[in-house]
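Entry:
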Amino acid sequence: MIFKIIGWTLLGLILLIIILMNFPLRIHISYIEKKFGLEVKFLFLKLYPRKKEKKNDENEEDTITSDDDTEISAEDDAEEESTAGEEAEAEGPSSPADDTEESTAISDQGSSASDPVDDHSDNEGEAETPSEESAQGDEESVEEDKKDSEKPAEKPAKRPQKKQHLADKIIALCDNISEKKDIIFLIIDLVWDHTVKFLKKIYCTDVFVDMEIADEDCAKAAVVYGAVNAAVYNFIGFMKSISRFDVKYTAIDCIYNTPSEKSRYDAEITIRLRPQSLLNLIYVLIFRFIANFKKYKPILSLIQKKK
């Protein structure tokens, strides 16, 4: 009987997981004003980013306890001051006769403590101290000179490096791709067919693109403007051909005779997909890689760290 209950509960959990994996996962990606944003929701749950309410509650508790401690310490100080005042009043003022007796006793002790032998020894110590101090001063100066000579020479201040332009970054990326083209072709052969099938099952909505390309050199600005236009519109056309791709707004402008730092690349997209489709893609790619390990083994060279 117990085994039947366990078996039915496990079967129920598996069915529940399968049903939940077929509900859509909502991913909102944004890059606005050079700030990357990511938000992931599943059903009514917000998976990322999580709220940070506990820290605020802890801070409030700490402030409350600190206020209570200050009030208690103030009360204790007031009580100590009142008790000290009462004790002083109880003792009363000191009499002048007592003051004269104490002064005469102190003068007698000072006269008895003074001795001619001690004075002579003190004078000798005072005569010897200047020579010792001068010797110590010379040693310290020599040590400081050695430390100064041992210190490494100060490095010249580095000049601020100019930021690499987007066109230069694109050229460097193309060079890296050309160097590793054989491995990239292997990755495309492994992933392409199954990735296209996966892309047909996702929904991209609320696509927002607003870019401004700026540069002081008009030629560079025009080159980057053309490259960005080609990349964006070719990507949109490709995605529309294989999936549901709803474009909300697109605008790409070119600004001449302005610093490249004022360039703006704002974009936003919302993706809806089923977790089950993503898991199926991962399983297929793993099993295909293991089945043809000899063929796709060079791909591991990209993962391994350079020694």
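Residues 90-130 have pLDDT under 50 and may be disordered.
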